[in-house]
Specification:
Radius of gyration: 19 Å
Strand content: 25-35%
Structural class: alpha+beta
Number of strands: 10
Helix content: 25-40%
Distance between the termini: 26 Å
Shape: globular
Largest sheet: 10 strands, mixed
CATH superfamily of the largest domain: Gcn5-related N-acetyltransferase (GNAT)
CATH topology of the largest domain: Aminopeptidase
CATH architecture of the largest domain: 3-Layer(aba) Sandwich
């Protein structure tokens, strides 16, 4: 995890505000408070009690986010109380979150890295066929290990597409898409057929999905597990900017 905050010079101040506004809307808090805190030299933590239903949040979880120059903790009130005097870099550890939630049967949902992008390199795709058909997604998923199939299939995303070679009934090579988060952010997903991996298709699809996301007026967001070298390399190759970390646990 980071030893410092990520007030990244790579992501413009305007886009930092758009990202923070998206998180604020999803948590039903004032965006201006996040903007002001992000501009301050000091670090400020915002606590959001999981007391009422929010569309993008599960009240039976605790989530700690370090984003630019602020932090956000969404959790039940008892968890907020227990975490209040713990330094952010310690709270961000999976072990700390599990310890705080031990009596409630806490189980880890993982430590993740948050990336955003505002400038994507161009990739030539003239030799590939692009489709947006559910049947192609099903065929692609069948060509991937079960553990790689995310909880939300690609064709359940707001926007998705697959690629294949031209020809009669070619097998899908890869797929990607994004879900709109809080009006201004597009959360990206990428899936590559097992036999097509290590050929650059993951990076290509991430770039294409990010490009389409930006074309629709959204800021692309890429989330990958801490220690996922492939996901992090893809982000760096496409021009994503490391902007934060997220650690989450769920309770019995």
């Amino acid at each position: 995890m980071s030893n410092h905050y990520l007030h990244s010079p790579g992501l413009s101040n305007a886009n930092q505000k758009l990202v923070l506004s998206a998180w604020a809307r999803s948590l039903d808090i004032e965006a201006s408070a996040l903007h002001d805190a992000n501009d301050d030299a000091g670090i400020q933590r915002f606590e959001i009690a999981a007391e009422h239903e929010l569309t993008d949040w599960d009240p039976n979880t605790a989530t700690f986010i370090q984003l630019f120059n602020i932090s956000l903790l969404y959790a039940p009130a008892w968890f907020l109380d227990a975490a209040r005097n713990i330094d952010d870099d310690i709270l961000a550890l999976e072990s700390t979150m599990l310890q705080l939630g031990y009596d409630a049967g806490a189980r880890s949902l993982g430590e993740e890295v948050l990336y955003y992008a505002e400038d994507i390199p161009y990739y030539e795709d003239a030799q590939l066929n692009v489709t947006s058909q559910s049947r192609d997604v099903r065929r692609l998923e069948a060509a991937c290990p079960p553990d790689d199939i995310t909880a939300m299939p690609l064709d359940a995303l707001d926007h998705y597409f697959t690629i294949s070679a031209f020809g009669e009934h070619p097998e899908p090579i890869a797929g990607a898409g994004y879900d709109v988060f809080s009006d201004t952010v597009g959360q990206l997903s990428v899936l590559v057929a097992l036999v097509q991996r290590a050929k650059g298709y993951g990076t290509f699809m991430l770039a294409r999905a990010a490009e389409e996301c930006m074309f629709d007026g959204l800021i692309p967001q890429w989330v990958t597990s801490v220690g996922d070298d492939i996901g992090e390399r893809m982000a760096n190759d496409v021009g994503f900017i490391l902007s934060g970390y997220r650690t989450s646990v769920t309770f019995d």
